[in-house]
Design brief:
With 283 residues, this protein is mainly α. The chain has 15 helices and 2 strands. The longest helix is centred in the middle third of the chain and has 36 residues.
């Protein structure tokens, strides 16, 4: 259902924006919590302000980073409640509810009453637990970590090319989606195929379970492992920078290789610093 939310957000489930809004409302029924229209609002802001501190609702909050740090146990439980944290980041922006969000609330209350009448308390509890577990420490929810947490220094967005795409509507094709957000899920593999020269050199994932394991156990991965920029830097880049052509990209190959080498050395130095701090702490 979360993936359907994603598709309706980009008006890819039906012919008109109104029809897509109602696809979201219908999909919201078994979730019991009014999420559809708020997800649409904040996900579009994520696309507009990706990585911009204070504007991208996908970025962890400062108190999350301070509280979780790099502790594997805390990271584990943080992933368990990740769906709750995702909602909390939107609420933290303290924005007034839109008209469609209010409609979503009213619709959800009516549907919840009807569901309670039909399913009873045990049925409602089952649905709530399903939502909690499905958006938490679940392989299908690992795409929240896969997409923008920096598993390789210098790369901000990652795709997943594993078998989970067959069940989760190609949600793993995230680089392709950010480049072409109006392309439906059925066509994203074709985007990668016809533009292979832009994607084949990028780091990617093949296992969502491995994503979760690496995030929890790695000493260099934590909630703060994100590319973050200021609003001024974002506006400058949008105004002045462009995607190079294929010929220009070839000319930049040596520069890119040098940059990647410098980033690798910086990462190794960072890891050595972490090891040294642990040794000192142990003493």
């Amino acid at each position: 259902i979360g993936i359907i939310f994603h598709e309706f957000t980009h008006n890819l489930c039906a012919a008109t924006s109104l029809q897509n809004r109602w696809v979201g409302n219908l999909g919201n029924i078994p979730l019991l919590v009014p999420l559809a229209q708020s997800f649409r609002r904040y996900h579009l802001e994520h696309h507009t302000y990706q990585g911009v501190y204070g504007y991208d609702p996908d970025l962890p909050l400062e108190w999350e980073i301070r509280l979780i740090g790099n502790d594997p146990i805390k990271k584990f439980f943080w992933l368990v409640i990740y769906g709750v944290m995702y909602i909390g980041r939107g609420l933290a922006q303290q924005k007034q509810l839109t008209r469609w969000e209010l409609y979503n609330w009213a619709w959800t209350i009516v549907c919840d009453v009807a569901l309670y009448y039909v399913c009873g308390p045990r049925g409602m509890l089952y649905l709530l637990l399903s939502v909690f577990l499905g958006f938490g420490l679940h392989p299908g929810a690992a795409h929240f970590i896969q997409e923008h947490y920096t598993f390789r220094d210098g790369q901000e967005t990652y795709s997943y090319y594993g078998s989970g795409n067959y069940f989760w509507l190609n949600i793993g094709y995230h680089n392709e989606h950010h480049d072409f957000p109006l392309v439906p899920w059925t066509k994203l593999p074709e985007v990668k195929r016809v533009a292979a020269e832009y994607y084949d050199h990028l780091a990617f994932h093949t296992s969502w379970c491995a994503v979760l394991y690496m995030f929890i156990t790695s000493s260099v991965l934590a909630p703060q492992s994100r590319v973050v920029r200021s609003l001024d830097a974002h506006r400058y880049a949008r105004k002045n920078l462009k995607v190079p052509s294929a010929d220009e990209a070839k000319g930049l190959a040596s520069v890119k290789s040098e940059f990647a080498l410098r980033m690798k050395k910086a990462a190794e130095m960072s890891m050595e610093k972490v090891r040294a701090q642990r040794i000192i702490g142990a003493q």
